[in-house]
Write a structure and sequence with these properties.
A five-stranded parallel sheet has the order 3-2-1-4-5, with helices on both faces. Helix 1 links the parallel strand 1 and strand 2. The longest helix has 20 residues. The chain has seven helices and five strands, in the order βαβααβαβααβα. It is an alpha/beta fold and 168 residues long. The chain is globular and about 30 Å long.
């Protein structure tokens, strides 16, 4: 496989503005690539703090999810299907992968594994806890732009788009 011959990877989460998924889908269609939607389990970031030799492979790529995450994955899958069909054009083929760990590292890891053409993420969510998280850990988009071998597209999410429909 040639470098960057894989899918367009998009980071998604519950409550995310659909503008991010819409842009990723448009890019995947224009590039003739499938779309890989990566959802990082919200309670899994601590796996990144373990020593690399102590981190089990299943903690990075979970095969089982808790009841809350299972519901989230099902809701996201339905929301992605609905959003892609509303675009009015032939949607790209897509998959949803459940990831674990720090969001930037998890998205970067899956992008490397599938030889992604590019990674698409949105700007950060508003709110005190998200602002604190970005201050402590840095924004996912900014961290990805420094650490990846493939291009990273950061979709700006305006206040107007935050008020429009979101994913799950």
């Amino acid at each position: 496989m040639a470098a960057g011959a894989g899918p367009v990877v998009v980071g998604i989460h519950r409550g995310q503005a659909r503008a991010v998924l819409d842009e990723a889908a448009r890019l995947a269609t224009e590039l003739g690539r499938p779309l890989l939607c990566g959802y990082v389990a919200e309670d899994s970031y601590l796996t990144e703090w373990d020593r690399p030799d102590d981190v089990a492979e299943e903690s990075l790529h979970p095969t089982e999810v808790g009841a809350g995450e299972g519901d989230a994955v099902l809701a996201l899958s339905e929301a992605i299907t609905a959003a892609l069909h509303e675009l009015g054009e032939q949607p790209p083929t897509w998959t949803l992968r459940l990831l674990a760990g720090d969001a930037a590292k998890a998205l970067g890891r899956v992008a490397a594994e599938v030889d992604a053409r590019l990674i698409v993420v949105g700007t950060h969510r508003r709110g005190f806890s998200n602002t604190l998280e970005n201050w402590l850990a840095g924004s996912v988009g900014a961290r990805l732009t420094h650490d990846q071998q493939c291009p990273v597209v950061v979709v700006p999410v305006t206040a107007k788009e935050r008020a429009t429909p979101t994913l799950a």
